[in-house]
Each structure stands twice: as structure tokens, then as C-alpha cells.
Amino acid sequence: LPKHPKIEGQASQFRECIMPHHPDAVVVSLDFDSQELRVIADYSQDENMVACYVGDHKKDMHALTGHQIAVKKKMVEVTLSYEEFAKAAKTEDHPLHKVCKTYRALGKKVNFTTEFGAMAPKLAVTMLVTEQEAQTYIDAKEAMFPGVRRWKDSVIEASKRDGIVRTKGGAVRHLADAYMSDDHWIRSKAERQSVNFEVQSSSAEMTKRAEGRMWKKGLTFAYDCVYYGPIHDECVFSVMKVDLLRFLEEAHWCMTQPYADMTIPIESSISFGPSFGLQIEIGTKPTAEAVAKGFEQMEKAIAKAKAERAANA
To answer: What interhelical angle do 61-72 and 131-144 show, nearest 10?
Structure first.
């Protein structure tokens, strides 16, 4: 269910097929904020990565990687600090805005593409660059988050020694047979699977526990709503507008409770709209003010969409 265009000039409309269960309802998304990256930060305790999610002055992970790439590529001076880079990326009238914004976006792509062990050949294909260029990106990221590399190496070493890997909730994946295979590709795949299992399956457990809390609270009985299910790292509902604020207060609580032994806080962003394709972001707190503003923005977005369809008819 992609949200962004896959063909240039053609909007991705798959999510528009997910509609409310009633004319007076909206489709609601409760989306874990940087779910897998937070799990990695918690496992690795990398200083820079933890600083992106903890403290009064949180850093921007994508700007950290983008800044390092820009420095390595000599697109900005070495003396340009991360703080100055991040500020320039956000400030349109800053003389370095364009280059910093571009490299911040590049940092985001590199962070997500390499999150689960993609090496230079894979990154090169994904980003349509040379392998040498891709390796420059990877080196920049690892220089910024060295603790993540050390953690990944320790997971691989332990999984080879023990033949298993566990999630934070205790689920087990057996990898001994793969590591003893005569096929080099299968052995190398097991290394990636060991790290991916700890991150992706822990994230899946986090989502399932949130769903369990929602069930125990009886949300689908207390309110006129329908649970459509988890889509990636989002829990998607259809909820009557009249129930929306009270529903969001309870559902958001379910999403943000501590998971296992994680010390990195869990956050969830909130959006709603006339379909899953047209969603209005209202932030990470379900307040009456945020919901009211969201409804105002939704009406404007609906009117704009109707006008565009009429113009293209």
C-alpha cells in the first residue's frame, strides 16, 4: 500500500480505496513514530542515535547522516556544524537551504535503505548511483552512528555462537542450520536475518501489544468504530466523528505504553481523513484543539481535491 507515486506524474491511489464504515466517520491512523529506528537506538545505545529520541534538544537522525554525507562529498565546509546544517535545511531563506535540504533528504533515504544491512551494491541499485558513491553514503552513516555497527556485529556473533536470536519479548528464531550450510549465500543471509529479526519482530510485538491493549479496553465496543488492521507500523480504524476525540485519547494511550525493557520512549503520530489516502496529520497529542484544527484542514483538503478532479474531468 504505497503512499508515494511509483510512476512519475501518476499519484499513488491505492490507499484511497480504504474508506470509512459510515458517511459520518473518518479513517484514523495511529502511526508509530520511527518505530524500528527507536528499537535500534534502544538495542545499540549509540550516543548520537539515542540523542534523536531522548532529551530536551532532540537531534534529527536524517540531518545527522545528511550532514556527514555533505561533508564527505565536500558540498559544505567541514567547519559547518550539525546544528547549522539542520537549521539551514529548515530555513528557506538560508543561503545553504537548498543543498542542506537535499542532503537531509538523502540522509533519510540512506538511513532507511541501510537499516537492515543493505550493502553498497543494493544501495547503489536502490538509489541509482555507483557502488563507490553508495559506499560513501554508508561510510558517512556508520561514522555518525558507530554504536549501531558494533551492536549489529555483536548480534551476528552471538547468533553464530548460540544458533538462535531473540526479540525483546522473548520470541526465538533458529539460525543454526543456516549458519552450518555449505552455501555462502545462505550463511550471509542468516547474518542479516539475525539483526532484522531482533528489530522487525520486536517492532511487530510492539504493535501486537498495542492491539491487545485496544482489545482489552474494548474500543470497538465502547465506540462506533471498526478496526481495519495494522498497515506497516500504523493501526488503522474507521471512527465516527462524534466519537473521535474520546477514541483517540484511549487508542493513543494504547500505542504509547512501554514495550519490554525499552528505555527509548515510544511515540505515535495521529492522522485522520475521508479515506486512508487523504490523511490530515494532527501531531502526537490527541487534544480537542488538534482534532478541531484537523477537521478544518480536512474540509479544505476535500474541497481542493474536488476542484482538482473537476478541472481534470
So the answer is: 130
